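Below is a typical protein record.
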Amino acid sequence: MNEAIEEQNRKQREIISRLNQERINRNAQADQDLRERERLEQQILDQEKRIHEERLRSNRLDSEGRVKRDSQERENNLTRELERKKQELRNHIREVEAQKNEAEQEFYAFIGEKLK
């Protein structure tokens, strides 16, 4: 009887220890993911600003009657780069969700195993 109680207590301590470690890991990963997301979002904002500035420059050149082909090409390149950065952010968000779901599945499997 005492052995069964001791075994149950050991399993409970193990689960609590794992819960605490999972919480620490999850918080650290969430902080890292947030910093990466903020970095990507800032890159997108900066790129949108560059596109806006290029459009203003292009419009000024156009109003002065000057050739703006190079300006249009620069704007197109900036726009392509913006789309690449937006895709990178979407991919990051998807990866974070997948990692989070995988960690949850592993954790629940661990708990299920310990409760047997």
